[in-house]
Amino acid sequence: MLMLAGWARAQRKALPIVLTVDHGLRADSEKEAKRVLRVAREHGLEAHCLSWLGAKPKSGIEAAAREARYRLMGAWCREHEIEALYLAHTLEDQAETFLLRLARGSGLDGLSSMQAVSPFPVPEFASLKLVRPLLGLTRGALRVYLKTSGVAWHEDPMNRDPRFARVRIRASWPELEALGLSPARIAAAAAHLSRARAALEAETDALIAGSCRFEDGEVLLDGAALACAPREIGLRALARLLGRIGGKPYRPRFERLERLFDSLPDGGPATLHGCRIGPAPAGAACFGPKTLRIGPEKPRKSRD
After folding, report:
1. Domain-by-domain residue ranges, the chain?
2. With contact defined as beta carbons under 8 Å apart, do 41 and 57 qualify?
3. 15: DSSP letter
4. Beta bridge partner(s), residue 271
5. Strands across the sheet with 270-272, in order?
């Protein structure tokens, strides 16, 4: 908050608006949210508290709270025509995210971890962006900054609750660092993978641009070009096309995607991810006999 406000003043830009979320999960949460508002206003910043109301889940609290706060902040930003939400994730947050995703068996995209600029994680707020300018700074550096600024901070007790996987990783840092797995090195590995991902995405863009024709909510695809592309590029292109035509913000399950990919372009019609994929009719085969057509899957008739 303070860094962004200082940058805005130095650049003579509009000051940031501060949002804090009261999840209502602890007795002191309302008091802590009010303190955020007070500090923000002491520094000349507009600030608002958004409350997560209603019943709270008994399990999966982390994921549910994350979903709730992004929905609350996304709705506020959209209502007030704000285009970007700035977050204070640090280098350690990046390293912890890498390890959490590694434990879940994530592939390259997941292990590239958080991006400096990324899409909003709730599909209905797709026009918003998340911006993380502090991924290269450590928590220690931020604490020094606050001390020199004369501003105290609050330590969230949930950050010490061993029920949460991220907290258990934080407790393991001394052992990990003894093995040479420091947060800086892990974050650097995530950055390497992020560059590799960007290169793959650029190749995927090129394949789609040269082998697709979009019309009337469908896409005609050069099946021969898809089959000749490097497998990773072809899979990415197919997944992106299915998501675009099917209106899904997430990718299909990888096993099903691979199975479909291997059946093209000579296989019969198939359905996946809300789409129907099959050979294009002769009159629409703009890329020759291997032209494929991907369109929305027709709703299934309900049985009486």
Report:
1. 216-296
2. no
3. P
4. 276
5. 212-215, 218-222, 291-296, 275-279, 270-272
Q: The dihedral of CA 63, 88, 92, 102: what is its sign? A: positive
List per-residue pLDDT tens for the chain, 304 residues long.
999 999 999 999 999 999 999 999 988 899 999 999 999 999 999 999 999 999 898 888 888 999 999 999 999 999 999 999 999 999 999 999 999 999 998 889 999 989 999 999 888 898 999 999 999 999 999 999 999 999 998 888 888 888 889 999 999 999 999 999 999 999 999 999 999 999 999 999 999 999 999 999 999 999 999 999 999 999 999 999 999 999 887 888 889 999 999 999 777 899 999 999 999 999 999 999 999 999 999 876 555 4
Number of H helices, E strands in the chain: 12, 10
- Full-model pTM: 0.83
Instruction: Tell me the two tokens of residue 155.
Output: 């330590």
Token duo for residue 85? 């939400």
